[in-house]
């Protein structure tokens, strides 16, 4: 077989592939990110690239306009390389990591949206120890009179000094036991895993007193983004953090496409390897930043949705999407991290937050625990909006959960120029009520290349309240503006003219886009509404409305109420918690009690299948209006509209 | 580097090595056995080979006679190959597996030696279950209303049906859980490890009801020999057995040379690999013989001395022979067998019999449990004679143990024509009281090539009682026989003339040999005596004297008393148990209670360092006489000698 080389710019990464090989796969191999939410099926049209040099064959796709084809754009997934190639990945096809750090940091901006941050009590000192503890012991050296074996000697000292009834021991730690004891002159620190209900287990032995060097890792395994925090378990502090895109994105943007990929031959292994490789990089980053030794990492706790959890652990996610939608495992045992591919010392165990159902995962359990919903009497509605909207309703006595397929609109899917909240994304818009001219604000103050979820909410509210669209999301065609026009896909509104953009074409929002956004917001609203009804309540009963997730922190509550995404209740009841999944994992690293609380939360939650409720479809259809078919539900919005007109 | 090929005959095995490579190492690589008790140091002189073809360089060694050198014999360990070689391993340098099966089977012969077999209650039905159990459950399939995860569903069913309080789960079994449950239509059998003191743990899941297919493996890891039995855990039956030499012999014959080899770079790994490779072969043999599937093996239990145990598990044995002689571990956790290199399903766990001290190991604990010493009031002295003699004294209330360095005489070491009990070994001798001519009996009725341990005892007794040697082991030079003569190494007695042997030289026993045998028997006798004294007892208190080990079954009690190896107590008190180490492992596979009893035995045993007792040296010196300095201790022997003279 003839080998050829594909160079990717601006990544400056290269892959060596067989002649005739696929360009998207070459990008995977090179580690060059190209958006491809369909996983290479040719249906999403996101993997557009310019081939600057070399010979290739490429299928024409209706995802490329005539203009793009002429410019030399091709879909990477539809292209095979015939010679060495030089490929440039344009901005709109690239994942941009630099913007990740923006999230959760821009406090000033948060306030402008009127959301209150729910303070998660991370920095509190916990009374309890972590689930892995360090026990320092000094042993009597053996003598002819006292010549019991090394392990017996160690266990007896631990039992005496720390009151253990029984101690199990990990075989791996025995191989080096005798050498370490002698090297350390019988002065050692023992790592013990103390999960309740399981016999405490010796998992590692370190020379001398290392109780000061006691580190843990918290991980949020998001479908889109991976967050890693390095924690000082002794002083309960965050030492460093890092994040990156989940590299599985290259194999499919949402959980369903990833499950489909995982079912393919070697698919599961490939997805698992990809995510663990990136996590290893992130762990190396935080360890380097904090200047600690990996040897003293003692625990890793991850939280992720059910599919991300099963992919991380290498458990086939096939049945998640098959009726009746059950996860393989709700509560996971502790797993030796290096067995999964983590480049961590063999003594490090990984704990995974328990999951509730196929579409209500460990990220939600982690978040609910972090927000202490299970510890307070007040009624909380907790939502995490992504491709799926997960909803939890309850208090310290009970909890119900549901998930609704919101669609990918807020993450950029199904919207012509939709994109994630990265640089160049329109995140705010004001439309002049007279001229209908927009003023747009982008992340990074760059020329726009698309519009992100939080921007869509504001845009839709603006279009609606300024009278450019009707409550059913159709453009008012009689207005005196050239911004509303008929385009390829029906009527559209021009947000930015070609020359003002990074993408070289007019940046528009179409009626089809608006329809998709309305369906998304309708599904979430209907989900919350039906979940409340299922327990005999309505929105007025909610005392605290918690919006979780990175996206949540950027939602403009007023505008979200305006379009009927959020219910029309007093705005001070809304709070955001940022990445509560990561926060919960962090709490569980610090405190065994918090870990147990997460399991208690999981046990409390009853999952409700919304599709089983006949009223869900009615509620959903009623919510496919701006803000809602029943305007009485939105008195504040009614007032606003009256004010504008 | 130039590669050359070394062919070994009659094994018909070949190794590809670098030019200039060592011949003994080449034999290791080829898997061709050559005796080499010094591990290749050039001091034992056992690795004699004929090089039939090719060029080589070989150092002359005083272990080779002038005649042997002329015949073309070379020490493999002192030879480097310069070209392809054809090497023939002569009978005396070869380990002979065919004879292994002889042991424990020749009931008729056993009786002739007057030993009674101690019946080990192996075939008894045990009330208790094994430590790994099989639980058959039929689950309700999931539905939208009842959609808990697969593992939760399984655990709830097990808790309900089998009354578990808590269940841990092995991560490995989770990866295939969902697939198996569906394939099996929710009808499965679950393997649960139920070690006391440790939370019961799900370790495997099998389709359908497999409770009838429930197999285990018992292994005796001897320094010389490996024994494997395949067991039917449901019906408590032995299905097949197999044995082979411990391939570590090629790296050193006794535990000390192996420890020295293990300390070398990669030595430990090589020794571990060697033994596990042979165990895998033996397991394949028994599985094939019984016609079962390996998939249904559920447990493996091994027993071995402390060094064999640490080598099997890959734990550096260095400290075993360093003051104050402590093992790394007394009580081992359950270890996943495949992690050690066993070619067994991932669900199979390995349990190792606990060890007492550096030189009192799991084989002894296993044997003591098998003999039920801990369950009876009668006082038992239990000995296992090998290179080390291990001694246990006690009953259901207390036990003390000791080991004495007996020396390798009974295993063939330190005796010019000493050898293991394999084909061609002299195992019985009668000497005519008038002519001093011997009648010899060999294993397999072949021409003799050496003399084995049980043969030495009889020979020594014959030489002594027939007046050929004095009580201090010196030849009586005034007798009218050409069989007593002065040889290279001092005075000697010719057992067989050159032409009557397989080895082409006169087969003799020398005064040096006799000295070594006397030292060995003296050490064992003194060890027993001091151990008794340490608890205020003497030989007359012993109600049962149990001789363990393959060698034990072949000891002629009368002759052993005659030379003062065994004490002069009524012969009906002596019993042999054969391979009690294997028997104990087998019992522990069948019954959790027996496994716990073994641990209880280990906890009961107090190890006594004989070297700490000043009286040991006195006792030892007093025992360096035939039968003993104090003839009053041997009234029966005194009578016999009087009868002969």
Q: Can you describe this structure?
A:
Chain A is an alpha/beta fold and 645 residues long. Chain A is 28% helix and 24% strand. The first copy, chain A, has 17 helices and 30 strands. A seven-stranded mixed β-sheet of chain A has the order 8-29-28-19-20-21-30. Chain A is globular. The termini of chain A are far apart. Residues 98-114 of chain A have low confidence and may be disordered.
List the helices and strands and how they pair.
2 copies of one chain form a homodimer.
Chain A: E1 3-9, E2 13-18, H1 23-30, E3 48-53, E4 56-58, H2 66-71, E5 73-75, E6 79-81, E7 85-88, H3 107-112, E8 116-117, E9 132-138, H4 150-162, E10 168-169, H5 171-174, H6 177-183, E11 187-193, E12 201-207, E13 215-221, E14 225-232, E15 237-245, H7 255-263, H8 267-290, E16 297-304, H9 306-313, E17 335-336, E18 349-352, H10 362-370, E19 380-385, E20 388-394, E21 399-405, E22 425-431, E23 438-442, E24 450-451, H11 453-465, E25 484-487, E26 490-496, E27 507-510, H12 511-534, E28 544-548, H13 557-562, E29 574-578, H14 580-590, H15 592-604, E30 605-607, H16 614-622, H17 635-644
Parallel strand pairs in A: 1-7, 8-29, 10-12, 13-16, 16-18, 19-28, 21-30, 22-24, 28-29
Antiparallel strand pairs in A: 1-2, 3-5, 3-7, 4-6, 9-11, 11-12, 13-14, 14-15, 17-18, 19-20, 20-21, 22-23, 25-26, 26-27
Helix pairs in contact in A: 7-8, 10-14, 10-15, 12-16, 14-15
């Amino acid at each position: 077989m003839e080998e050829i080389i594909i160079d990717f710019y601006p990544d400056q990464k290269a892959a060596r592939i067989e002649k005739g090989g696929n360009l998207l796969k070459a990008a995977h191999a090179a580690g060059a990110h190209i958006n491809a939410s369909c996983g290479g099926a040719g249906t999403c049209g996101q993997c557009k690239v310019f081939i600057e040099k070399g010979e290739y064959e490429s299928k024409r796709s209706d995802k490329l306009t005539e203009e793009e084809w002429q410019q030399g754009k091709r879909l990477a997934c539809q292209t095979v390389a015939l010679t060495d190639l030089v490929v440039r990945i344009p901005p709109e096809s690239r994942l941009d990591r630099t913007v990740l750090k923006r999230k959760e940091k821009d406090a000033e901006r948060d306030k402008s949206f009127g959301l209150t941050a729910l303070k998660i009590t991370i920095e509190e000192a916990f009374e309890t120890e972590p689930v892995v503890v360090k026990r320092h012991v000094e042993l009597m050296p053996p003598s002819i009179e006292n010549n019991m074996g090394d392990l017996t000697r160690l266990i007896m000292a631990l039992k005496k000094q720390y009151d253990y009834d029984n101690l199990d021991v990990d075989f791996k730690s025995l191989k080096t036991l005798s050498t370490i004891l002698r090297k350390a002159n019988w002065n050692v620190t023992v790592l013990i895993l103390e999960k309740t209900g399981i016999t405490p287990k010796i998992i590692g032995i370190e020379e001398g007193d290392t109780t000061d060097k006691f580190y843990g890792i918290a991980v949020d395994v998001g479908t889109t983004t991976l967050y890693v925090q390095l924690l000082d378990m002794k002083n309960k502090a965050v030492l460093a953090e890092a994040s990156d895109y989940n590299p599985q994105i290259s194999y499919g943007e949402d959980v369903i496409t990833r499950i489909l990929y995982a079912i393919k031959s070697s698919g599961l292994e490939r997805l698992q390897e990809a995510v663990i490789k990136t996590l290893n990089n992130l762990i190396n980053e935080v360890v380097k930043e904090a200047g600690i030794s990996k040897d003293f990492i003692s625990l890793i706790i991850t939280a992720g949705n059910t599919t991300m959890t099963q992919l991380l652990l290498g458990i086939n996610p096939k049945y998640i999407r098959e009726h009746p939608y059950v996860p393989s495992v709700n509560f996971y045992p502790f797993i030796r991290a290096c067995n999964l591919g983590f480049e961590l010392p063999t003594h490090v165990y990984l704990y995974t937050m328990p999951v509730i159902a196929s579409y209500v995962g460990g990220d939600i359990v982690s978040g609910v625990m972090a927000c202490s919903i299970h510890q307070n009497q007040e009624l909380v509605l907790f939502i995490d909006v992504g491709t799926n909207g997960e909803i939890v309703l309850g208090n310290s006595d009970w909890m119900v959960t549901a998930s609704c397929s919101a669609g990918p609109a807020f993450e950029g899917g199904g919207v012509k120029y939709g994109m994630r909240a990265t640089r160049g994304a329109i995140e705010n818009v004001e439309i002049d009520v007279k001229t209908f001219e927009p003023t747009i604000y982008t992340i990074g103050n760059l020329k726009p290349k698309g519009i992100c979820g939080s921007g869509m909410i504001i845009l839709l509210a603006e279009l609606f309240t300024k009278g450019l669209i009707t409550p059913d999301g159709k453009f008012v065609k009689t207005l005196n503006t050239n911004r509303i026009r008929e385009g390829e896909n029906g009527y559209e509104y021009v947000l930015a003219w070609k020359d003002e953009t990074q993408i070289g074409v007019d940046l528009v929002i179409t009626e089809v886009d608006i329809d998709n956004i309305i369906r998304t917001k309708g599904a979430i609203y209907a989900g919350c509404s039906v979940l409340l009804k299922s327990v005999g309540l309505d929105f007025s009963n909610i005392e605290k409305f918690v919006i979780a997730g990175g996206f949540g922190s950027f939602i403009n509550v007023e505008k979200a109420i305006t379009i009927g995404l959020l219910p029309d209740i007093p705005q001070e009841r809304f709070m955001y918690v940022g990445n509560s999944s990561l926060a919960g994992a962090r709490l569980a690293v610090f405190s065994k009690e918090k870990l147990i609380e997460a399991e208690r939360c999981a046990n409390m939650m009853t999952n409700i299948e919304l599709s089983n409720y006949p009223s869900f479809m009615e509620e959903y259809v009623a919510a496919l209006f701006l803000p809602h078919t029943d305007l009485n539900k939105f008195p504040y919005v009614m007032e606003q509209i009256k004010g504008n007109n």
